[in-house]
Amino acid sequence: MIRTTRRKFLVASAVMAATALSLSVMPAQAFSPRSAEVGVTSTGIKLGITLPMTGSASYGYNQLPGAMKAYFDYVNANGGVNGRKISLVVKDDGYLPKKAISNTQDLIAKDKVMAIIGALGTANNKAVASAVNLGRRGIPSLFINTGFSGFNDRKAFPTSSTILPSYIMEAKMMSKYVKDTHPGKKVCLLYQDDDFGDDALVGFSKTHGNLDFAVKVAYPSLSQGVAGVPDSWITKFKAGGCEVQIVFGVASATLYTILAAVKAQYAPKWILGSVGADIGSINPATVPYVIGTTSMSFMPSTVDPKDEYVAQFKEINTKYNAGAKFTSWALIGMNTAFIAVQALQAAGKNPTRKSLLAAIDASGSKFPNAALVPLNYSKTSNVGLNGYWFGSFNKTGDLVPNDTFTYTVYTTDSGTGAVEKSTYSRPAMPAKGLPN
Amino acid sequence: MFEFINTLLIGITAGSIYSLMAISIVLVWRSTRVINFAAGGLALASSFVGAAVLEKTGSFWIALPLAMVAGAVFSAFIEFFFLRPLLKRSGDKGAEIFLPIIATLGLLGIIKTILSYIYGERIGSLPPPLSDKGFIVSGESIALSPMRILILGIVLLLMISLTLIFQRTNLGLSLRASSFAPEISRLAGIRVDLIRTVGWAISGAAGATAGILQTTNGSGSVAPESFEFSLLLVFGFVAAVIGGIESLVGAVLGGLTLGIILAIILMYVGGSLVFIAAFLILILILLLRPQGIIGAKGGRRA
Amino acid sequence: MAVVHKLHVTNKHRFIGFVLIGLMVYILSNTVDEWKAFQGATIAVYVVAIASIILLTGYTGQISLGHGALLAIGAYTAALTQIYLQLPVWICFIAAVLVTSLFGAILGSAAARLSGPYLAGTTLALAVGLPSIANQFSFLGGEQGISFDVGWPPLSLGEAFTQYKWFFWITSLAALITLWWIQNLLRSRYGRTWRAVKTNEVAAELAGIHVARSKVLAFTVSAGIAGMAGALLAATINNVSPSAFPLALSFSLATGAVLSGVNTLGGVMIGAVALVAIPEIASLVSDRWSGSESVASLLPDFIVSALLILTVFLAPKGPIENFRSRHVK
User: Residue B227 and residue A262: Cβ atoms within 8 Å?
Assistant: First the structure.
């Protein structure tokens, strides 16, 4: 007995020692000795992103990194940023906050990136900001793909910035649109049961958009895939006699809603939130169902024949993105990369995390880019875009403003300010889409 | 009232899909006394086969049977190459009951990663073959459509034909005999090993049907990293236990019961409870009526 | 629960062993970089979690595929204790253990009437269902969760002392104490009772052992340890959210237990290290030989699953017992 116990312990200790050894023998991560800043060497700049690449919430969004990389490759092929080539480390978080946290820890401690860029999701980024303590550690998380207004707090999130217009803005604009175009109709709402949806509720509230709903349904994230769940939403909406149906959810939830509505022959006037509207690119079979439904965007239409950015980005996409379709998310991804390159250029000859953040504060609002609404970065604001235009899906499932591609753009704030027509005129694109 | 009837109809459709998964679990349980946690993965793999066939031939009516064949082959393969040697080896009376469970979990992981590797971000498309638009009753569309009637029909057909096989044929007799008394069956000249593989194969076919119908009834598309299929397994298991885990009719009733209860909870209580509800129903059933809703009296000590 | 420790000579040996391991961890923490310190902390969390499964499965024969849910209860308890009662961190850990034990006692009462596949399936349903409750009640923080903060390392440890190293210390200390306690428990009257129940329920019953009560007790203790693991996990990620406790966590803990060998506590390190090292090795392999992102993200799961099946076939009693039965007999 004693012998075996001791042996057991010997084995256990041996394993422990072996672990210790293997941990310390594993090759140290590449780290440039000359670099003064994490993620920046004399030849390269390393950026990172965490977002859902797989799972039911990944549809659409998983096209972002490919487009971003394509644009970086295009810049790298044309000399890079001050001679440095930009690389992007992509991590899949499956839209799970816990995974986003550990991915971000990986990106910072293991991959040693200079900054996180274009990370996606409200809950994920809130969890990351508090758990990884980005602010205190001075690590930039730039152009986050969320419209959650809570990030608009420079004290709490000193190193984070968002790029999408806030969900409050979106909900306020929807409220005005519905009241203008469908006065007196019964309106119903489907929204995600977290901060993403709560932000929308603020936008629809009495003090903001002031839109009343006959039926409101909140769905927990990921419940949309359970058999019968989307059918139950539709049953509730139908019972409430809804005439205008707003869907404020991720793409998979929108997809399931539309399919369940077809089954139940529920045909309200649809208004799909910008986050989840692009369902035709997930499942081409659904394109016929979305023709004519209303949605909104801040970017030019991906099929706009006369937009210089769309033409240029399309070309880059064809050349550097291995046959991927040029979708609305590809356009957003490429635009984010385009803005990031300008920020890195503005951060000086030898960019640091500090100078990068300072550059965005100082000149972020002046970066030319494809969006039809202005960027609002400044010393006091870390919120990106602030407006939308309304359009509808055409026969090919692409969102267009009208046949002539003339956009009526609205703008507002995340407070109680009015929704107004935008007077912003977009600066011309730098030659060949290469900022200098 | 309309709302309530629709809720019931939604529950019945969802429940009939759980029933198929429950049938799949019950068949494996009856033949080898193992819960096959890889059943969800097998259903997923078979659905991809179905989607591929549909893409090639354009016909759902070819895709469904071929997916069932694929499910049967996958399932028999697993039984033959993994479970059979494992159960032979650890013959010491259930002491190692942990091992088959873990083995099926490992297989689940392997199936999922292989599918993800093959399909990556692509999805398999399985649109409904019949109209899934609800019938109109007194001016209102109800939650019953030709497609849903088809789903119910397939479930009933499978249940009835499997029950007949089990009760009226030699194969069924051998299946039952080798699960209840393998040693005696062997002495009686039944090829127990072969019979068990057949049991697994039928189970795989039922699981494939569940996968195909789940996809067709849901988003019409299937992805390798599908949370839906994990849930399908859990709900199928709960349905099987509600039905007493031994009986095919029980599995179907269990599935329908679960589907209806979940639909009612969704409609009248709240969406967030749908995941935990299955667990609570399971615990209640196990504590109050461990033999299942139609099972005979007896312990629940596998 | 009063545990009577019988001090054998071997117990002294074991104590020295524990101190040595602690010393090794201490030296290790001073030599590795930030990233490896974090991995070390993760290993320590897994050690505690896997030990709780081994205690349950290896020593009493009950199977849980839902330990992730128990970790979740521990983690939420710790965070809620900190947020709403503002109690010191170490009390949060104790609260996590107590509340999870209580839950374990309730679940165990149901579980004692089940066995084998039923218990596995029931705990599986729990693992799927429980985390989603966070969406139902706003004080649980919904999808993004709530924070649990063990604080920054005290300044007296120096400027260069990173937070990850601090996590490494806390989790390793907790793991060592927990293991020490478990192995003493297993040597006590309770441990012997459990083993008797596992070996032969009927014989144990005849020998006057209250089988059901003994199983409930094992479930309670296992749950308490799982609660501790949950609180530690929350500490290392500073956050508690439903997504920290997916079905995959329960599965990988079961995997870790099988790789460690469910029948002996001695191998607990093997499973914990494997769970952390496999993704690491997989990414090295895929970097070198394929460079494909999809291979890099799929390979860890594939290796874990394949190892699981190999272990079941080649070393069903775990690598250590396998080794022992081959060389000692």
Answer: no
Residues in CB range of A6: below 8 A, 6 or more apart? C10, C13
- Using the CB atoms, write b or e for B35-64: b if 16+ within 10 Å: bbbbbbbbbbbbbbbbbbbbeeeeebeebb
pLDDT number for residue C232: 92
Contact between A259 and B220 (Cβ < 8 Å): yes
Q: Which of A64, A222, A232, A281 would best serve as a mutation to test chain B binding (most B beta carbons within 10 A)?
A: A232
* Chain B residues close to C304, C-beta within 8 Å: 109
Question: Is A99 touching C (CB cutoff 8 A)?
Answer: yes
Domains along chain C with CATH numbers: 9-327 (1.10.3470)
Higher pLDDT residue, C122 or A34? C122
CA distance B92 to chain C (A): 11
pTM across the whole model: 0.79
Q: What are the structure tokens assigned to A427, written together? A: 């600066």
Which residues of chain A does CATH 3.40.50.2300 include? Answer: 44-166+302-386, 167-297
Alpha carbon distance C127, B237 (integer Å)? 14
Q: What does the domain layout of chain B look like in residue ranges?
A: 20-126+154-249
Q: Please answer yes or no on whether A9 and C280 come within 8 Å at the CB atom.
A: no
Instruction: Give me the CATH code for the A167-297 domain, please.
Output: 3.40.50.2300
How far from chain centre, in Å, is Cα B14?
12
Q: Contacts of residue A53 in chain C, CB cutoff 8 Å?
A: 297
Query: What is the four-CA torsion angle of A236, A240, A246, A247, rounded to 10 degrees?
Result: 0
Pick C143's closest partner by Cβ from A2, A6, A221: A221
Give the pLDDT confidence score for residue A18 in this predicted structure.
Answer: 54
Q: Does A318 have pLDDT greater than 90?
A: yes
Does the structure show a pLDDT above 80 at B25?
yes
> Which of the other chains make 3 or more beta carbon contacts under 8 angstroms with chain B?
A, C
ipTM over 0.85: no
> What is the band of B302 on the pLDDT scale with cuts at 50, 70, 90?
very low
Hey, what are C70's tokens? 């128990």
Determine the residue of chain B that is closest to C254 in CA distance: B102
Strand pairing report for A115-117 and A141-144: parallel
What per-residue confidence (pLDDT) applies to A8?
54
Alpha carbon of A231: minimum distance to chain C alpha carbons (Å): 20
List the one residue out of B140, C259, C14, C271 whose CA is nearest residue A264. Answer: B140
φ/ψ of C25, rounded to 5, equals -60, -40
Instruction: Indicate the CATH number for domain A44-166+302-386.
Output: 3.40.50.2300
Read off the pLDDT of residues A25-48 as tens digits, 9 standing for 90 and up: 444 333 333 345 788 998 999 999
